[in-house]
Task: structure prediction
Amino acid sequence: MVVSAFVLAAAVLSSPQDVSATEVRAGTPIVAVTVVRHDVFDTDQPGTQAWPYRAANALHFLTREAFIRSQLLFKSGDLLDPTLLAESERILRDHGFLNPVTINARPAPNGCEVVVETHDQWTTEVSANYGRFGQRSHAGASMSEENLLGWGKRLLLNVESENERNTVTFRYSDPLFLGRRLRLELARSNATDGSLDQVAVESPFFALATPYAGAVQWMREEREQWLYSGGHKAVSGAVRQHSFELWGGMRLPSPNGITRRLRVGLFHRFVEFDGWRWQDGRPFEAPEDRAMAGVLVGVERQPSRWTVVRGFRGWQRQEDVSLGPRWVASVGASLPALGADRTRLLFGSEASMAWMSGSWYSWTSMTVSGRLEGSRWVNGMTHVEAGTARTGEQGWRARVAADLGYELDRDAQVTLGADTGLRGWEPDTFDGTSRVVSNLEWRRKLTGEVLHLGNLGVTCFADAGKTWGARIGEPAHRWHADVGAGLLVELTRASVVRIVRVEVALPDDGRGPVLLATGTSLF
Result:
């Protein structure tokens, strides 16, 4: 949960008005593109004229018009394509610090004028961080800027204390590296049990029609890893790993409304384990070291079907949700000739289907991954999920999710507890190699914006789940369930944390309640 000193003193104006209700036909020449930017506060609005709002505007760097134009998929002189207007809206909202965003066309002499209207979110955070799942908590402080100098660059310095480690992290990202549509990601983390370094430069598939893409990524990490039993640390050991990946991709010929892509790359991944032991000092059989290097090929398919909703995770923010079937699959060959310790075949795939029926958003998804070593399929994991949620100010939502493991590596564990959806138990209470969990919730918005900071709502819920195939601790031999209620806070004008959940759950075994406080959404 993040409480920002600036967010507590900031707000932005209400929902935007349509630029024009007049329809402009596709194919009309665009004679002008106008960008209308709104600051964090509209000090002309009643209730936002006090000095804290004016001061926040003075401290905030309004997103640069040049940055906004760099994200658009059209320009003056192009022919109007409504799908590119809608996709440009999604690209701008995806940055997180612009919401709401509207792009409309209106008639103009000799063609049409496209008006891009954006509303800045508060992006400067001097924060105290606190989260709690039962008896496990984390706390810390951070300084971050999600839109540095108005150019969309992100800068983070975070100090965090958890049960497992204390960590100091620095992160920097730039979506317009070298003034082009290149993404630069840098990360450095020092912890009491290790460190992390990460560098990535990517020319992404910026839009559905982007013809080519590519990336180079490097990562090195050293840390202590824990396996849990009954919510407590049971086994620990050192993990050292580094990876390198270089890939290029292209958009394949596709029918209208469908995007198909191909990626081909080289990879090298090395993982080493050392000093694994039980908490009482007994030795524990360490996971097997792995050196994998080879060629990776991936394909993906996605339709250009999206819709904008309110009231899915938050009530006020615009949220882009995909519709229709989409899938991605990749196969990698790890070969000794390229530096691998043995021949392996790596596989990963994701498939999803989502649809809207009135105000209900529903989805199904499946993810499969693993390795083929000789004739053995190892570290196989299948995730299956189905859910539905009524968008709007109140309604029901439900989800069922299963993670099915097969011949998992010894450093892999599938646990169940408050952090994975069974909110009446401490995190990592039940051990396993597979699990299933279901959640049913009802929630309701109670207020409009309070002090121009956020909306308040309530929720009541019931969870159930179980695990099997335990290797470290006790599995959930039967289905366990809980019921609870909580307070929801939608931070309507913060770009970092959008939903804060404070929930209390009662388990079905008669023990005391478990308290959760987190800034992440369960659905």
Q: What stands out?
A: Residues 432 and 468 are 5 Å apart (CA to CA). Helices lie at 51-59, 65-70, 82-94.
